[in-house]
Amino acid sequence: MPRHKIMRKRLNKVAKELKVFTTKQMADRLNSYPNSEGKRVTKSPKVCMNRCHNLIRSDKEIVVKERYTHSDTRTIWEYIGDEEK
Question: What is the mean pLDDT of each run of 10 residues along the chain (85 residues)?
């Protein structure tokens, strides 16, 4: 499975748990995400802040709650995936 699909699935799973989060919180959670055995390994996919911001922005189930113009890491996002169904 391509890396971006793995990261997108992890992003949705973590977003459902957090509901309201910042870009920095999401990047920290994605970078500390364990594998199926519960361990972090050296080949685990990592994501930088800009990539995390772009992944979140492209997801249709996540919307901007509060935008900061000077820093993408402080933008507050909200998961709305459950409300639509």
Answer: 76 91 88 76 75 88 82 81 63
